[in-house]
UniProtKB/TrEMBL annotation:
InterPro entries: Fumarylacetoacetase, Fumarylacetoacetase-like_C, Fumarylacetoacetase_C_sf, Fumarylacetoacetase_N, Fumarylacetoacetase_N_sf. Its cofactor is Mg(2+); Ca(2+). Mg(2+) binds at residues 219, 239, 243. It is an enzyme of class 3 (hydrolase). This is Fumarylacetoacetase. Ca(2+) binds at residues 137, 184, 186, 219. Transmembrane segments: none annotated. Gene3D superfamilies: Fumarylacetoacetase, N-terminal domain, Fumarylacetoacetase-like, C-terminal domain. Keywords: Calcium, Hydrolase, Magnesium, Metal-binding, Phenylalanine catabolism, Tyrosine catabolism. Residues 18-129 form the Fumarylacetoacetase N-terminal domain. It comes from Knufia fluminis. One of its GO terms (biological process) is homogentisate catabolic process. Pathway: Amino-acid degradation; L-phenylalanine degradation; acetoacetate and fumarate from L-phenylalanine: step 6/6.
Length: 315
């Protein structure tokens, strides 16, 4: 049972008082430009209005940086402040919305500030939370590479060594819309800082301090086009036409209760069951809970074809 909030929050809401994800919103019924916000229950709270209404008078560490809320249209500037401040801000916002908050005068008992700060999510437009220059798509691990390989080469040749020639197919390609559009449900990470210089490695023990937060991501793929262009240098157009993410970023610290021990592969495939350890530069402290136990769920409803459901656990 989570902590109680004076804001009306459904018990099973994904935007609970223990989560408080960050995003960018605007009100369609006003001239409010895109501004940083957090989601709690069925509401979004404008961090710009909170800052302008002097609701951030208590935490001394955020006061010199309020422009990341009052003058920013993305979360990049806030992310760049680092994880200790991310944690401080999230916990302070949680404190403001607790039923027994230590600062009721700042918001709970301040109807005027509530009126300009708290909006229903359905009345708001969400925007891409971060300014994204580019990103690199890659295999996240052995399971990822194996599952993709099965799609094209079957389970016996899912993980080839070196380059191979594929079985001959159609003699001539045709230019046509994809008939095998697919999505991969993934967990995307936004970073809050980079390495010092190009090519400078980041130690595995320090890697988590570089993560701002996570969103759900759909990696869209045109599988039939991918199969044709995959060898020898692809994929190209089959993978770079669309990627979608969820509206709000769940801060890394919000996932701390879901840490778990490293999980070894469970597949019966020989290449996976033999993978009992990783190379030294990827090895973490013994006994450290370095994974997250997260349940991912997809609902598919093709037009006039009923309803399909897919779900799984991730770590």
């Amino acid at each position: 049972m989570g902590a109680a909030s004076w804001l009306d929050v459904e018990p099973d809401s994904p935007y609970s008082i223990e989560n408080i994800p960050f995003g960018i919103i605007s009100k369609s019924s006003s001239s409010l430009t895109p501004t940083p916000a957090v989601a709690i229950g069925e509401y979004c709270i404008s961090l710009k209005r909170l800052a302008e209404g002097n609701a951030f008078v208590e935490p001394p560490d955020i006061q010199p940086h309020l422009e990341v809320f009052t003058h920013a249209k993305t979360l990049n500037a806030f992310a760049g402040l680092g994880r200790p401040l991310h944690q401080s801000v999230r916990l302070y916002i949680r404190e403001l919305f607790l039923d027994d908050t230590k600062y009721p005068h700042l918001l709970k008992d301040n109807a005027k500030l509530q009126n300009v700060t708290i909006h229903r999510l359905v009345d708001c437009t969400t925007h891409v939370p971060m300014q994204i220059g580019d990103y690199t798509d890659f295999y996240a691990g052995l399971n990822h590479a194996y599952n993709i390989g099965v799609l094209f080469r079957g389970p016996q040749n899912a993980l080839p060594h070196g380059q191979i020639l594929p079985q001959p197919g159609d003699a001539e390609p045709v230019h046509a819309p994809s008939r095998k559009l697919d999505i991969e449900l993934e967990l995307a990470a936004f970073l809050c800082k980079g390495n010092g210089s190009n090519g400078e490695p980041i130690a595995i023990a320090e890697a988590e301090n570089y993560i701002f937060g996570y969103t759900l991501m759909n990696d869209w793929s045109a599988r039939d086009i991918q199969a044709f262009e995959y060898v020898p240098l692809g994929p190209f157009g089959s993978k770079n036409f669309a990627t979608t993410i969820s509206s709000f970023v769940v801060l890394a610290d919000a996932l701390e209760p879901f840490r778990c021990n490293t999980m070894l592969p469970t597949s019966s495939h020989d290449a996976l069951t033999k993978c009992k350890s990783v190379l030294p530069y990827l090895q973490e402290d013994a006994g450290k809970k370095s994974h997250y136990n997260i349940r991912l769920h997809v609902d598919l409803k093709p037009a006039d074809q009923g309803h399909a459901n897919q779900q799984g656990n991730g770590s």
